[in-house]
């Protein structure tokens, strides 16, 4: 991912666009065949040479063209960039790079989704306590938890696919997008060769709502990874300890406290999501350019887009590693269910009493009173209810999982889809 955003990679893509433009012009008979041959033979200019020339020109595209044409005879060099404006080159190359970057990121997201699905299947029948408002609610399974994250990442993958289609476009239409000095055939040919769509109504630049769509999709991906990371961090706490991040033998958690086993990967993933949300805001600011174009977006994109794509790729990759190597303590999960003396079964008891004919308010209050007794440290729910004349049978987590097969079929559909 990082290699896509180097100066040298950018100039290589610019060179490819210039060659394709000249090739299209030659097909139209505008550029002589001999000049095309010289243009095609020219090397990609070195980034250092472009930078050197830019110190005298204060214009990156003109400096690139000057460096590129140093390798082309003068009679042929005059045909380079014919009929084009700067952003015909820049935005068409940018669209090509963005498409490649989306593909790299999509591969990482697909790997994360697969890791979540595999772990969800492996732990589908691993009971654990579900929590709402941070408090014990009802039993669920750890596989169910992970499946929720898997579907979220699947939605992120589909958003990324849509965003790729939005940004992988080019335009070679001249200074205000009217094709005033260039045949529209050139644009169709170049974009076709690069696998790009064409900006439908160009103004010189590709519309920046497209790039905003991409960085919104990336920010949502970051937020979904953050949700997963927050869950593993919460379940890693000393008093919970239901999961633990994968560790190497070299792991050291604290410079002062040798016993610490900190969830640093999850914390890192959480912090990176904050960066991605910031970049998404920057992309929205770039949408409203002056008239047919201005340059206010350029400085932002040089920082925000490479950083956002690279951060997202790292985040998705690190999250997949975390999920793949996650240590799951099934015994601790089961102990957490039993920790409150059966309070997690209160809703099942309420349903049974209602089905048996007890009035709702009376049943609710009786169970709540018994639960308060248990919460104060006195016995378990069954005993507390029995003292009030309510006898309940044994309750197990499976009571809440009677329709879990419906959810598993949905997970199987996702697993089959990604296969």
Q: Any overview of this molecule?
A:
The strands form 3 sheets. The chain has a two-stranded antiparallel sheet. The chain has 419 residues and is mostly helical. The protein has helices at 7-28, 33-41, 47-57, 60-69, 74-77, 86-122, 142-167, 184-194, 209-236, 264-285, 296-325, 330-338, 346-355, 360-375, 381-387, 404-418; strands at 127-132, 135-141, 169-170, 197-198, 243-244, 327-328. It has 16 helices and 6 strands. The chain is elongated, with a radius of gyration of 30 Å. It folds into 3 domains: 2-82, Fumarase/aspartase (N-terminal domain) (Fumarase C, Chain B, domain 1, Orthogonal Bundle); 87-246 and 258-335, Fumarase C, Chain A, domain 2, CATH 1.20.200; 343-394. It is an enzyme of class 4 (lyase). Residues 341-412 form the Adenylosuccinate lyase C-terminal domain.
Task: Give a quick rundown of the structure.
The protein has 16 helices and 6 strands. The chain is mainly alpha-helical. It has 3 domains: 2-82, Fumarase/aspartase (N-terminal domain) (Fumarase C, Chain B, domain 1), CATH 1.10.275.10; 87-246 and 258-335, Fumarase C, Chain A, domain 2; 343-394.
What does the largest sheet look like? 2 strands, antiparallel
Q: Which whole number gives the mean pLDDT?
A: 95
Question: What percent of residues adopt helix (DSSP H or I)?
Answer: 55-70%
- Identify low-pLDDT runs: none
Per CATH, which architecture of the largest domain?
Up-down Bundle
| Relevant CATH superfamily of the largest domain | Fumarase/aspartase (Central domain)
Strand order of the largest sheet: 1-2
Structurally, how many domains make up the residues? 3
Which structural class fits the helix and strand makeup?
mainly alpha
Radius of gyration of CA atoms, rounded to a whole number: 30 Å
The run of helices and strands is HHHHHHEEHEHEHEHHEHHHHH
Assign the CATH topology of the largest domain.
Fumarase C, Chain A, domain 2
Number of strands: 6
């Amino acid at each position: 991912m990082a290699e896509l955003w180097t100066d040298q990679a950018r100039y290589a893509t610019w060179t490819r666009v210039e060659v394709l433009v000249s090739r299209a012009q030659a097909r139209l008979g505008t550029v002589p065949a001999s000049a095309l041959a010289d243009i095609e033979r020219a090397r990609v200019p070195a980034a250092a040479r472009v930078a050197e020339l830019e110190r005298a020109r204060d214009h990156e595209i003109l400096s690139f063209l000057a460096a590129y044409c140093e390798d082309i005879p003068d009679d042929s060099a005059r045909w380079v960039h014919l009929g084009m404006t700067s952003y015909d080159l820049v935005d068409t190359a940018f669209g090509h790079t963005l498409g490649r970057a989306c593909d790299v990121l999509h591969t990482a997201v697909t790997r994360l989704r697969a890791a979540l699905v595999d772990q969800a299947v492996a732990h589908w029948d691993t009971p654990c306590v579900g929590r709402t408002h941070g408090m014990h609610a009802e039993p669920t399974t750890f596989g169910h938890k992970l499946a929720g994250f898997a579907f979220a990442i699947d939605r992120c993958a589909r958003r990324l696919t849509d965003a790729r289609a939005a940004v992988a476009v080019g335009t070679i239409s001249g200074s205000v997008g009217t094709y005033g000095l260039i045949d529209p055939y050139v644009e169709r040919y170049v974009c076709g060769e690069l696998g790009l769509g064409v900006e439908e109504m160009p103004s010189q630049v590709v519309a920046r709502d497209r790039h905003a769509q991409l960085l919104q999709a990336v920010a949502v991906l970051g937020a979904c990874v953050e949700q997963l990371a927050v869950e593993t961090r919460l379940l890693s706490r000393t008093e919970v300890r239901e999961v633990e991040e994968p560790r190497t033998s070299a792991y050291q958690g604290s410079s002062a406290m040798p016993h610490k086993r900190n969830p640093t990967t999850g914390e890192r993933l959480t912090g990176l999501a904050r960066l991605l949300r910031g970049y998404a805001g920057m992309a929205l600011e770039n949408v409203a350019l002056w008239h047919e174009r201005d340059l206010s977006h350029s400085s932002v994109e040089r920082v925000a887009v490479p950083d956002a794509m690279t951060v997202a790729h790292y985040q998705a990759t690190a999250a997949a590693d975390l999920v793949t190597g996650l240590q799951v303590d099934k015994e601790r999960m089961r102990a957490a269910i039993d920790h409150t003396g059966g309070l997690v079964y209160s809703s099942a008891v309420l349903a049974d009493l209602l089905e048996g004919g007890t009035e709702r308010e009376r049943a609710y209050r009786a169970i709540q009173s018994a639960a308060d007794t248990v919460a104060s440290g006195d016995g378990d729910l069954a005993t507390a209810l029995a003292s009030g004349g309510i006898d309940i049978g044994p309750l197990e987590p499976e009571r809440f999982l009677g329709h879990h097969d419906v959810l598993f079929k949905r997970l199987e559909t996702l697993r089959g889809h990604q296969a």
